[in-house]
Amino acid sequence: MKRSWLPIATLLGLACGGGGDATLPGDGGTAGDGGGGVQPDGRPDPGPGAIGEWTDEPGACPTGATRADITTAAQMADASRGDGPIADCYFVHDGTYVQSGTSPILYFTRGGSAAQPVVWVGQSRAGVQIRGRASFDAGAPFVTLSNMTLDLTGYTQSGAFNTVTVLADHVTVRRLTVTGDCATGLRGGAIEVDGGADVLIEDNLIEKFGQCQGDGHLDHGVYLGSGSDITIRNNLVRGNSSRGIQLNTEGGAFGTLSGILIERNRITGNGHRDYEDGIVVNGAGAGAISNLVVRRNLIYRNYYAGIRFVGDAISGITIEYNTFVDDGAQTSAPGRSEVNLDGGTPAGSITRNIFVAERTLINTCAPSLTFSDNVVDGPATGGCVGTITAVDPAFVDAAGGDFHPTATAASGYGAYAP
Questions:
Q1: pLDDT above 90: percentage of residues in the chain
Q2: 118: Cβ contacts below 8 Å, ≥ 6 apart
Q3: What is the pTM of this model?
Q4: Hey, how many other C-beta atoms are within 10 angstroms of the C-beta on 113?
C-alpha cells in the first residue's frame, strides 16, 4: 500500500531524538515513476513523479536464481561470510536477528557477477528485524541487499561505526529501513560508501543515526567518503544527528568522489546545531569532488542550510529542479541560508529551483557558482543570484509536506516541475 507522510511536527521531533512510530513510512516497495525524458547532462530525468515514496511489496528471489533460506542469526552471519550454503539468492524469513558482538551480522565477503549478482532479500521490510550492522567487503562486488530493517536502537560499540558500510563495487542497497534511537552511531553514517563504484542507494528510510542529544556533529544519514558513479535516489532521509547526506573526502585522505547523482529524495529535519544541513559537500586539496547532480529533491527544515559547500576542489556541480523550504529555521545563526558557502568555491550552476528562504537564499557569493532562472520567496541578494521570479509558490500543504506549487508562475520550477 502507499505510505502516508508523518506530520511535520513529528518529522522535526525526530531530528532531536523524538520518539518513533512502528508505522513509519518506508516498510518496503517500489518507487513511483514519473518518466521525464533526458536532462542536459544526458542522464534520464525521473520526471515529476513521487518523491521519497514507495509501495510495500513482499520480497522474492529473482526468477531462476538458486535459493537458500535464512531463519537464524547464525545462518545469516555464516552465509554472508561465504561459510554457509552457496546460492544466488538468500531469502531472509520474517523474524528478529540479533548480532553477537561488534562484528557485523551481515558481512558480505562473497560477491557475484554482472550476469549473476548475489541477492539478499527479506520476506518483508517490516518483518525482518536485524539488530545490528552490515558491511560489504571490497572483494564482494555485485551484491544487492533489500527489503529488511536494520535497527541500532540500544546497540553499543566503542569507536566509529556505521550501520551499513559499502567498500565494494556494483552494490545495491534498496528498500531498507535503516533506523535507530537517535542516541547510537558514531562518526559515520547510517549508510557509508568508502571507495565503491557503481553503487545504488534507493527507496530507503534513513533516520535517527547518531548522538542527536549529544556530540553528534559527525553522525550522518548517508556519508560518501570516496567512490564513483554513486546514485542516491528516492529515499526519505530524516531526523539524523548532523547532516542528511554528507560528501566529505577529508582533503584526499579518503580519496575522491565523482559522478554522484542525488535525485528524488525527501531530505528533512536533519541536524541539531549550527553547520548541520540537508546536504554538505566538502572537497579540498587532493580530495576533489566532481560531476555532482542534485535534482528533483525536497530539501526542507534542516537545521542550518539546505546545501552547504566547503573547500576549493568542487567542480561540475548541477543543482536543478529542487524545492528548498525553511532550512535554517531552527537556528538564529547569522550565516544560515538555503545555499551556503562555508569557505567553499564550488563551480557549477543552480537553476529552475524553488527556494522559500527562511533567512536568505545564499550567505555569500562565489564567481564560480551561478544562479539563473529560479523561483525565490524570501530574501535573495548578491551579485551571483541572477534572474529570479519572486513569487510565493503557494504549496498545496507545506505544513503537511506537500510541496506541489499552485502558483502559475512557479509551475515550471522545483521538484515537481513537468
A1: 72
A2: 88, 89, 90, 108, 110, 111, 112, 140, 142, 143, 144
A3: 0.90
A4: 10
| Res 27: pLDDT | 28
Q: What are the phi and psi torsion angles at 266 (to 5°)?
A: -105, 110
* Element (DSSP H or E) covering residue 261: strand 257-263
Q: What is the mean pLDDT of residues 129-143?
A: 97
pLDDT tens digits for range 368-383:
999 999 999 998 877 7
**355, β-bridge pairs:** 324, 376
77 backbone dihedrals φ, ψ, rounded to 5°: -65, -45
Q: In the chain, what's the furthest Cα-to-Cα distance?
A: 63
Q: In this predicted structure, what is the pLDDT of residue 320?
A: 98
Contact by Cβ (8 Å): 362, 328: no
Mean pLDDT over 271-281 rounds to 93
Helix/strand/coil for 250: helix
Cα 401 from Cα 312, distance rounded (Å): 35
Q: How far apart are the first and last CA of the chain?
A: 25
On the question of pLDDT at 22 being above 70, the answer is no
Mean predicted confidence (pLDDT) in 194-198 = 97
Handedness of CA 179, 180, 181, 186 (dihedral sign): negative
Q: Burial code of 146-156, b = ≥16 C-beta within 10 A, e = fewer?
A: bbbbbbbeebe
Q: How far apart are CA 411 and CA 119, in angstroms?
A: 41
Task: Report d(CA 260, CA 283) in Å as an integer.
Answer: 13
Residue 189 is placed in which grid cell?
A: 553514517
The Cα–Cα gap between 240 and 289 comes to 23
CA atoms within 13 A of residue 179's CA, in its CB half-sphere:
27
Encoded amino acid at 177, one letter: T
> Which range has the worst mean pLDDT, 30-34, 219-223, 242-246?
30-34
Cα separation, 268 vs 7, whole angstroms:
12
Sign of CA dihedral 110, 113, 114, 119: negative
Count Cβ neighbours within 10 Å for each residue of 73-96 and write b for 16 or more, e otherwise. bebbbebbbeebeebbbbbbbebe
Cell of 164: 551499513
* CA atoms of 159 and 396, how far apart (whole Å): 45
Residue with cell 536543478: 320
